[in-house]
Design a protein that fits this description.
mainly alpha, 3-stranded antiparallel beta sheet, single chain, 3 strands, about 160 residues
Length: about 160
Amino acid sequence: MSASAIALTAYLAALGESIQDESQQRLALTETSLVIQYHDIDIPFSHSQWRVLDHTVCFNHDRNTPEYSECTVQAKSLFTQICSALSNQSSRYWHHQKYKEMYCDAAVNFQPMVATISYGSSTLLSDEEKKCNQAILKSLTNPEDEQVFRDKLEACKGIKQ
């Protein structure tokens, strides 16, 4: 979807909200929720007083998941594209300027949660270490069995403990 189409979708979604008198619209005192699909991800957020409420962006995801991270990164990109598209278009309607300011502010100030999952080299065990650990566990559950003890010694031979 092009940046213009995304901006137009967001703009029309916002304009299609419940009808209020113009003074309430200009102040935008009520919290308005939107969900915009961007790069095959639904990005929910709310805005009030012509500001995107950061704590509502991607609220449907658990904050400790890679999905939340991806959603917030895409949200930042979405806000940037909408800002750019609205900045490149002119309109005589007061809504246009307000939405442009709101999305451009979010594009600059919203901080996505960038998370990566990696494993340090100390957590990666070699096959020999895994066999040794399994033999140790088996010897702990069978402390009387001498064959299990010998298997443990053999499995752990040459591994620094």
